[in-house]
Amino acid sequence: MVAAPELISPKSSRVVAARRLGRRNFRGKERLFLAEGPQAVREAAAHGGLVEMFATVEAAERYADLVGEARRTGARVHLADESVIADISTTVTPQGLVGVCRFLDTPFEEILAARPRLVAVLAHVRDPGNAGTVLRCADAAGAEAVVLTDASVDLYNPKAVRASVGSLFHLPVAVGVPVEQAVAGLKAAGVRILAADGAGGDDLDDELDRGTMGTPTAWVFGNEAWGLPEETRALADAVVRVPIHGKAESLNLATAAAVCLYASARAQRASGGCRSVTVS
């Protein structure tokens, strides 16, 4: 049996400290962020990022293995009343588990030193749900890194963390990098820069047919509403559009990112740059 809740008041100092992490300035000051739900908390514990966990009695019983794993990693585990979880959570229907996690971002120089073959660069991406979903797509496609420029959304926004569905813990992510610095650094590391834009002069199908996509590649994705500014497109080796074969006006950012990243991943495997794929 799991004991009764020890935290029953939203005014508890631990609860107040956790709730403040819903705000960007407090996240930056403490270098901590919130991860909600069993999947995100499990990934945080597995990758050494979990500092503290709040769980309802019901959730602690249902996910007893996760509670045990959290404690084994040294994370503090608090049994909390449902009202406390609701107070900390940023979702409408909390799942009974909230983790406090360490910042995970990787210095851009370390990403370059690893000589990545596939990178997603988010330039001017402001919607946290889109940012998290693109990160998830990059993880699924086998990208080695993601870069968020200084004009993009906060990586640790709760909506971005939820949308990544744990992928935030799987691959290196650099944040706050000026787009010019990101492009210059990647080019110097031998990475080809492709800007994804619906008005691009090159067609993704043509790029694949020409066999030009098997080399190390970084895809630059822009703002959800207006795409990439001209000065950013000018930095790329090519500006590529995803062909629209039907009557749809366009693709949303996350869908376009998935198409582009998987196209590169397939081309790189075919050209000898074999990628490991885990089937679960």
Question: Helices and strands in order, then pairings?
Answer:
Elements: H1 13-20, H2 24-30, E1 32-36, H3 38-46, E2 50-55, H4 57-62, H5 64-72, E3 76-79, H6 82-88, E4 97-102, H7 108-113, E5 118-122, H8 128-141, E6 145-149, H9 158-164, E7 173-177, H10 179-188, E8 192-196, E9 202-203, H11 204-210, E10 217-221, H12 230-233, E11 238-241, H13 253-270
Parallel strand pairs: 2-3, 5-6, 5-10, 6-7, 8-10, 8-11, 9-11
Antiparallel strand pairs: 1-4, 2-4
Count every helix, treating DSSP H or I runs of 4 or more residues as helices: 13
Give me the side-by-side strand order of the main sheet: 7-6-5-10-8-11-9
Number of strands: 11
- Which ranges are low-confidence, i.e. pLDDT below 50, for 5 or more consecutive residues? 273-280
What features would you describe in this structure?
This protein is an alpha/beta fold and 280 residues long. The chain is 40% helix and 19% strand. It is built from 13 helices and 11 strands. It has a 7-stranded parallel sheet with strand order 7-6-5-10-8-11-9. The protein has a 4-stranded mixed sheet with strand order 1-4-2-3. Strand 6, helix 9 and strand 7 form a beta-alpha-beta unit. The longest helix has 18 residues, at 253-270. The protein is elongated.
